[in-house]
Amino acid sequence: MSRFLGYRCSRCGQEYGADERLYVCRQDGGNLDVLLDLERITAESSPAAIGRSREPGIWRYLPLLPVDDPGHQGTPLRAVGWTPLYAPPRLRHALGLPRLWVKDDGRNPTASFKDRASAVVVARAQELGVERVVTASTGNAGAALAGMAAAAGMPAVIFAPMTAPPAKVAQLMIYGAQVFLIEGSYDQAFDLSIEASAAYGWYCRNTGYNPFTAEGKKTAAYEICEQLTLAESTQAGVGNGWLAPDVVLVSVGDGNIISGLAKGFQDLVDLGWIAAAPRLYAVQAEGSAAVYNAFQAGADEIEPVQATTLADSISVDQPRDGWRALQAVRRTGGKCLRVTDQAILEAMSDLALTAGVFAEPAGAAAHAGLRLAVAEGLLAEDERVVLLNTGNGIKDVASAMKAAGQPTVIEPTMAALAAVLAG
Ligand SMILES: *Cc1c(COP(=O)(O)O)cnc(C)c1O
Ligand SMILES: [Zn+2]
């Protein structure tokens, strides 16, 4: 664990040693950035060395992670990440973006981006020797923790709102987690889980609370650059380094994915493995737009909202990593975009129809944001743009049916078929 130097508060800059057992800053509750020994990483690793790794997932980036190899070969814990980076020809054409890419993180073991964080948190929990992991979740973080904990043989406790889509609740149950559905919001589940973890000594994975989640999520930034370099290998990378995109679009709830991506790209800039970090475009649902509101107002503090959106994974009153998310957007010269639930449903069918990617509403929100960004002229035609789908559409079939409409029911006869075909 010698690459892991300690923590620094993202708000006040207070530093803490690696042996401290804490989640957020003791002074101001700010989110903690994990500090890594970049000199050591430079001495021990390189893009070429990582390129030779035979790990088909996030563990190929072990030299850049603050945990040791967790083991569990031959389990889904080793299969997190290295999700496809598509070059979708018809979507590129439709949007007039010839260098558009779609990264499909719905292809993770539990079908969402959250596996990246949960795998790293389980690795950390093992090192700490804790007996039980816990998380609050709108559904996906819990499914991911339950799945990764099952792979590692570790008990998990999950708190989720009663309104979580049934497929996500089924995932929690089938992986054998102890599941508490809360008669209340995600934010209430969040607060309860923190109290419970303190009272019972459980290791808490909560998004935007545990500093290791962003360390897992940053692996998507590494992958995007490595995969882009492989895909465009006729063009030279940056010396011995990787190509970075110009823009990445991602949906935002708590803001931890976008903070993790920002950390990942910044790591690569600091290591000299990419030339510059991409602009990060944060997409929020109209009914859950706390980060967007602060960005538009030029404000430093984020005012909570009363979240209402069908995109359950980004339905958040008080973004727990909102401050870093806001900094990530501002620092990279990015934008915040706001989309309606109707636009999300349209984007869900458009992405499936045009790119063959089935996203849940929160994933499709990023595509709705992409369509808006194109309409508003926020992207140049020659830019490399990456659209990140964060969750699989199978997780929320009710919304998919809303987006897609109902199929035609007929009697099993040619006459019935012909009648329908005749219109
Ligand atoms: C969690 C999640 C998000 C948002 O991530 P935050 O870190 O909360 O901003 C987006 N899409 C899906 C599918 C998710 O599960
Ligand atoms: Zn602080």
Overall description:
By secondary structure, the chain is an alpha/beta fold. The protein has helices at residues 38-44, 47-51, 89-95, 114-128, 140-152, 166-174, 186-200, 211-217, 219-231, 256-271, 290-297, 322-331, 341-355, 361-375, 397-404, 414-421; strands at 4-9, 15-17, 32-36, 85-86, 100-104, 133-136, 156-161, 178-182, 203-204, 247-251, 279-285, 335-339, 385-389. It is built from 16 helices and 13 strands. The chain has a six-stranded mixed β-sheet with strand order 4-5-13-10-11-12, sandwiched between helices. The protein is globular and about 75 Å long. The termini are far apart. Zinc ion is lined by residues 9, 11-12, 14, 25, 27-28, 30. The site of pyridoxal-5'-phosphate (PLP) has 19 residues, from α10 and α14.
Short description:
By secondary structure, this protein is of the alpha/beta class. Helix content is 40%, strand content 14%.
Instruction: Write the H/E string, N to C.
Output: EEEHHEHEHEHEHEHEHHEHEHHEHHEHH
Average predicted confidence as pLDDT: 96
Shape summary = globular
CATH architecture of the domain at 76-111 and 214-404: 3-Layer(aba) Sandwich
Relative strand content:
5-15%
Number of strands: 13
Widest beta sheet: strand line-up = 4-5-13-10-11-12
Contiguous uncertain segments of 5+ residues: none
Q: Which ligands occur here? A: pyridoxal-5'-phosphate, zinc ion
Helix content: 40-55%
Structural class: alpha/beta
Q: Give me the number of helical elements.
A: 16
The main pleated sheet reads as: 6 strands, mixed
